[in-house]
Design a protein that fits this description.
By secondary structure, the protein is an alpha+beta fold. It has one domain: Jelly Rolls (Sandwich). Helices cover 43% and strands 28% of the residues. The chain has helices at 3-11, 21-30, 84-89, 110-119, 121-152; strands spanning 32-36, 41-43, 51-57, 60-66, 69-76, 81-82, 96-99, 103-109. The strands form two sheets. The chain has a four-stranded antiparallel beta sheet with strand order 1-8-3-6. The protein has a four-stranded antiparallel beta sheet with strand order 2-7-4-5, with no helix packed on it. Strand 4 (60-66) and strand 5 (69-76) form a beta hairpin. Helix 1 (3-11) crosses helix 2 and helix 4 crosses helix 5 (121-152). It starts with a helix and ends with a helix.
Length: 155
Amino acid sequence: MSLNEEVELLRNIPLFAKLEASKLKLLAFTSERLTFQPGQSLFRQGDMGDAAYIIVSGEADVIVDTPKGPLKVAGVKKNDFVGEIAILCDVPRTATITAQSELTTLRISKDLFFRLISEFPQMAVEIMRVLAQRLEKTTSDLRDTNARLRQLQGG
């Protein structure tokens, strides 16, 4: 994929859509392109975060460890952004991301990510929007699960 193709890819991701072309070129140039095979993990739950990833192609599973073993809680695909929570909050990874198919990503280092946020406040707003949507979905899923549990328990 050429630099211009990567710039177009980045432009289609809401997080980066409002960045000027020169900044997108810098981002594409300084990002590391990585390919993962099915079953291979981008990172594991509990690892310290040093980068975020943009899915260029393919699909991956979001898996969390539970007392009963690994549980798939979501899937990610082209144009999705993963791994930002660990670098934003400076906490261990909250999930494992495992390639479901051949997966191509752009890896954005923690330093570059923070430089972009400081230079482009609208990017920080978009990150908050994405995280808020994820939280709303998680809350909704939890509410639905609790309702099903109450039904099963006859309550």
